[in-house]
Amino acid sequence: MNTLTIDIRKAEPRDAAAIAEVHYDAWTGAYSGIIPHRALTRMIGRRGAEWWSNAIRRAASVLVIEIGGKLAGYATIGKNRARELSQQGEIYELYLRPEYQGIGLGSRLFAEARKRLAASGLHGLVVWALEDNSGALSFYQGAGGRDVAEGVEVFDQKALKKIAFIWD
C-alpha cells in the first residue's frame, strides 16, 4: 500500500514550470467556451515558466499544493484590490489540475490561503469569480462565501460578469 502525502507550501522558483502546466490545464478546463478563444490563448501564453519564476522571485505570494510530490494546484494571494470592499485579503487565483478537482484539495488550499492571509495581518477575504464559471461559484458558495458585489471583465470586446465573494 502506498501512502500519498499532501503538502501545501510557498512556491519556489523550481516550481515555475509545473505551475505553468497547472495554469494551462486549469484555465483551459475552466474557461474554454466562456472566455473567447483568442483572448484565452493569449492570456495562457503569457504565463509560461519564465513568467511564474519571475512572479515567485518578486516575492509574490504563490502557494502550491502537491500530492505525492506532484504539483496539483496553486493559489496566489495578497491585499484586496477592490477599495469598495472592506475585507483586507484577497485570493487572486486558486486553480487545480482538472484531474485533482472534486476530491478536497481545493478546500485544503483555500483554507491554507486564508490562514496565511490572516497570519500576515490581512483580515477578511475577497475572491472574484466569473459568473459563467459554475464550478468556481459552487466552490466559493460551498465554502461559505457571500455574494456581495458584481463587476465586469472584458475579453476581446466580450463583457463577462464577475462576482465577488467575501468572508469576514
In short:
The chain has 168 residues and is α+β, with helices and mostly antiparallel strands. It has helices at 16-31, 37-46, 49-57, 105-119, 134-142; strands spanning 6-10, 61-67, 70-79, 89-96, 125-130, 146-155, 158-167. Strand 2 and strand 3 form a beta hairpin.
How does this structure look, described?
The protein has helices at residues 16-31, 37-46, 49-57, 105-119, 134-142; strands spanning 6-10, 61-67, 70-79, 89-96, 125-130, 146-155, 158-167. The chain starts with 5 loop residues before the first strand and ends with a strand. It has 168 residues and is an alpha+beta fold. A hairpin with a 2-residue loop joins β2 and β3 (70-79). Strands 1-2-3-4-5-7-6 form a seven-stranded mixed sheet, with helices on both faces. α1 (16-31) crosses α3. Helix content is 35%, strand content 33%.
